[in-house]
Write a structure and sequence with these properties.
This protein has 307 residues and is mostly helical. The protein is built from 14 helices and two strands. The chain has a two-stranded antiparallel sheet with strand order 1-2.
Length: 307
């Protein structure tokens, strides 16, 4: 005589409830991916096909071309693409790399100082820097541009001289560095302050100064947090249009790729077949950066949350 053991109703409900979040995530992922897939397919379709039918018709009548990418990269399709976007692509690289390195380097040193070098007012400085995150970016663009172009004066006394860096790469690096500092110091401070105190004390007992502790202990242990913030900063600077439009001052020699992409579409929406190809050219580098550093991403986000 054999007996069959039936699963309890509560176990079935738990199994069903555990699958609900996964199902929801998959639905959101599919809904989010469909427009991107349509943009990707459209980048390989001719102008006539794009205006004649929807992108989903490629599954029944496949027709692809590389003309859009040729026009975007090397020009040849109207005045807006006479030279292609490769020079602007290189401008974005020149803008983004220093705009990531500068805030990461400065914020790491500031976070270490605020975490392990106790001095009067250190807590106030940290909370003041953290509070700067509530200042809207848009409110500071024009005053900062005026500071770069005309300096700051109090009567006949010059507080800040005219910098004259608007329209140059330095005029874009500096705003990105300034705007990134509050969040960078906050995130890195939480991580660095969670490092073992005994490790720091042992290093000082062995005769190490603050610079040696920072270089030989803090930096190697902070790689996950540095990589996580570097990804955020890279994506922010690479995809930025507002800061570039403001501080490039209309100079095409320093304009990033997003400024060029914004001019690809005509006044009445014509020419967006080249915009689809240009959009996927711009995401190549961010994808490479993200997948190269993704092993540090989650660790860097969670690090410092629990001591």
């Amino acid at each position: 005589m054999t007996t069959t053991k039936l699963a309890s109703p509560s176990a079935g409900r738990r199994l069903f409830s555990s699958k609900i979040p996964a199902i929801i995530v998959w639905i959101i992922t599919v809904v989010w991916t469909i427009p991107t897939l349509g943009l990707f397919v459209s980048s390989f379709r001719s102008k006539a096909d794009i205006y004649a039918s929807g992108w989903w018709t490629v599954f029944s009548h496949p027709s692809f071309t590389l003309t859009n990418y040729q026009h975007v990269l090397f020009g040849g399709s109207g005045a807006s693409l006479s030279g292609g976007i490769l020079p602007y692509f290189m401008n974005s690289v020149v803008i983004t790399i220093p705009a990531v390195i500068f805030p990461v380097a400065i914020a790491t040193m500031a976070a270490y100082a605020l975490s392990w070098i106790r001095f009067k007012g250190s807590d106030f400085i940290f909370f003041f820097i953290f509070a700067l995150q509530i200042v809207p970016l848009q409110m500071s663009l024009v005053p900062l541009l005026q500071l770069f172009t005309g300096g700051a004066h109090l009567g006949h006394f010059t507080i800040v001289p005219k910098l004259g860096i608007a329209g140059h790469f330095a005029g874009i690096w500096l705003p990105h560095t300034m705007f990134a500092m509050p969040l960078a110091i906050y995130l890195l401070h939480n991580f660095i302050s969670s490092l073992p105190k005994d490790l720091m004390e042992a290093a000082h007992v062995d005769g190490a100064n603050h610079f040696q502790v920072f270089r030989q202990i803090v930096l190697p242990l902070s790689i996950p947090a540095l990589a996580a913030f570097a990804i955020f900063q890279f994506l922010w600077v690479w995809n930025d249009l507002l800061v570039a439009l403001t501080f490039a001052s209309g100079t095409e020699e320093v304009a990033p790729i997003n400024v060029k992409l914004a001019s690809l579409v005509g006044q009445y929406g014509s020419g967006w077949e080249t915009l689809t190809a240009g959009a996927f050219v711009t995401i190549i580098v961010p994808l490479i950066v993200f997948f190269s550093l993704q092993r540090f991403f989650v660790r860097g986000l969670l690090a410092g949350s629990v001591k």
